[in-house]
Amino acid sequence: MSSLTEKDKPIVQLLLSTGTCPRCILRFCCVGTQTLYRHPYKDLMKDLKEFLKNNEEKEDTVCFGVVDPPCKRTRLEHTEERPDDLNHNGALQQIPSINDENTAMETSAVKVCNVCLGILQEFCEADFVKKVCQKVNSADYQFTSFVFSVSLPPQLSVREHAAWLLVKQEMRKLDLSLAKDDIVQLKEAYKWIIHPQLSEELSVPKKGAALFEVSVVFAHPETEEECHFLATACPDCFKPAKNKQSVFTRMAVIKALEKIKEEDFLKHFPCPPSSPKNLCVTLEIQCNNGAVFVAGRYNKYSRNLPQTPWIIDGERKLESSVEELISEHLMAEFKADSFNFSSSGREDVDVRTLGNGRPFAIELVNPRRIHFTAEEMKGLQQTINNSSDKIQVRDLQLVTREAIGRMKEGEEEKTKTYSALIWTDKAIQKEDIAFLDDIKELKLDQKTPLRVLHRRPLAIRCRIIHTMKSEYIDEHHFRLQLKTQAGTYIKEFVHGDFGRTKPNIGSLLNRTADILELDVESVDVDWPPSL
Amino acid sequence: FSLLQHNNHVSCCRICVITLAEAHPLLQNGKTITSINYQISANCSRLQNKVSGKSKRGAQFLTELAPLCRISSSDGEEYTIYSCIRGRLIEVNENILSNPAILQEKPSTEGYIAVVLPKFEESKSVTQGLLTQKEYEEVLSKR
């Protein structure tokens, strides 16, 4: 447990008198005890001043801010004047005596900290915590645990840098050094203070895989231009801004601060930093839930339904789509902002999907509701199935993100079976098509079909037809069941696509063939688990 | 020298397949094809057309009067088949090199000449520049 010792006194006095708040002072003294930061502001201020008044003869650890009676009793009570005998060079301001500072502190309202601009002051108070929780509660999210993230204005890094230079200078007198990395990070200290308060106010445990994020964005308009001098000092750190966004991003400012020489910095920026008039303001308090994934299998019974909405030039060409019919109800129940639909392959508008159906997964983005029992999922499935006869779903369940990978691997590796209704120009007899049943592992060379050539690269795909089974209908029609490798274009295998799929049914039968109907009979993927 | 007209198969996705028109001399009785040559000039062979990626980079760009191939018949005639539309050459049919018969037997399907993809902005004007089957027959009847 690290706390303040004798050698910290000059730093504490310096920072306190230049308008730095107690918690920032603790940070610059490298105090890493989280609990200390959570003490009420007034107590910390009082304890710091007492610490300065006391004059310890021993060099060892002084107990600071610990509510431990024995420790306090052993402290010697000394009220000693500490004259301002610190000499500073021209770049630093004159430090007023501690006594003046004390009186000023007691009579006026809390001054806004010149380093954190109020973040470790006002924005640690219960009022602010309540405000954040109000926002969270009104947004009405379901969550088990949360992550708190905060975005600070870039000028805080500049002020931090200035304060560090100030402290470094002071410590050199004592032959001590202070690395910037040793200072407790503002963001970290802030989260130490805020997170437990939020956790309690929201009645939520701290631990657990937190997918729910509460984020607060702070700004300080009064000092917005404080970083601008860095653009002239380190121009290569600042890239041209896109979309009217400020070129002074946090990352760019930090990079520039690493580069700039101490002398150059002090020329352009006051050290210690000036006391601002106003606190930071909260630009926004946002809530975002991690995505949830719902998987299942769908059957498609319509020959007039696209997978995704078919819109050309802003005009919808066909009513609805597979993804909309399934997602509509899920979006409503999960109260999500948007969805991403993916499936293990897909079929054309005019092709039905029979059998066990095709595996699909839907990512629901920023859902308000995330807890659903197996019963509720069954109910959801029923609702979807009752709403349309064009599609039906089964095995509807919540899955993890990793599951999507399994589904996609099915798309490329697993076999599919189909049923095709085929027409021939010249007459056929039963004997003419019987030989098809005996063909096993037929190798095809398929050039990219003309019907998709505008949006796919030109290539030749080798695919295998594992088995076939023919069913004679009449002199110009027969049905063909096929089991094929994933990625085989069935329609092109039947009509030949101008001879660009070889062999094809036409070439095998020595006739011109065309496909009248196609159904997917099975997608041989064993995911998601059947319920 | 008779005017060559080409059939075009235009799917809603803008891909065009260039084939010989019905009335083309090569499709009339008695003509035997002796050779098909995709080398249309010293520097340019349609066989060397290579496209890559979705946007078909590297494709030879064709204008209406760009020759696709030259076909010779046994009676000494040589016919140049022109693109007739503007666009990127996607592929030429190499099957007719090994089997010239399909050019005459199945001119509208396996005997196609080339596949061309017009620019997206030009696809509508390309379609409008074509004749429908009916209009084509009218033109023929007037000859």
TrEMBL record, chain A:
Enzyme category, top tier: isomerase
One GO-annotated biological process of the protein: tRNA pseudouridine synthesis
Positions of the Pus10-like C-terminal domain: 293-524
SUPFAM superfamilies: Pseudouridine synthase
The keyword Zinc appears for this protein: yes
Localization per Swiss-Prot or TrEMBL: Cytoplasm; Mitochondrion; Nucleus
A single Gene Ontology CC term: mitochondrion
Top-level taxonomic group: Eukaryota
Enzymatic reactions: uridine(54) in tRNA = pseudouridine(54) in tRNA; uridine(55) in tRNA = pseudouridine(55) in tRNA
InterPro entries: PsdUridine_synth_cat_dom_sf, Pus10-like, Pus10-like_C, Pus10_N_euk
Chief location: cytoplasm
GO molecular function, one term: metal ion binding
Keywords associated with the record: Coiled coil, Cytoplasm, Isomerase, Metal-binding, Mitochondrion, Nucleus, tRNA processing, Zinc
Keyword Zinc: yes
Span of domain Pus10 N-terminal eukaryotes: 113-287
Enzyme Commission number(s) of this protein: 5.4.99.25
PANTHER family attached to this UniProt entry: TRNA PSEUDOURIDINE SYNTHASE PUS10
Family assignment from sequence similarity: Belongs to the pseudouridine synthase Pus10 family.
Protein name, entry field: tRNA pseudouridine synthase Pus10
TrEMBL record, chain B:
Keywords, ordered alphabetically: Cell projection, Nucleus
Domain of life where this protein originates: Eukaryota
Pfam families: GCV_H
GO biological process: dendrite morphogenesis; regulation of actin filament polymerization; regulation of filopodium assembly
SUPFAM superfamilies, per database record: Single hybrid motif
Cellular localization per UniProt: Cell projection, Dendrite; Cell projection, Growth cone; Cell projection, Lamellipodium; Nucleus speckle
GO cellular component terms attached to this protein's record: dendrite; filopodium tip; growth cone; lamellipodium; nuclear speck
Keyword Plastid annotated: no
GO molecular function per UniProt: actin filament binding; actin monomer binding
Family indicated by similarity: Belongs to the ABITRAM family.
Record's protein name: Protein Abitram
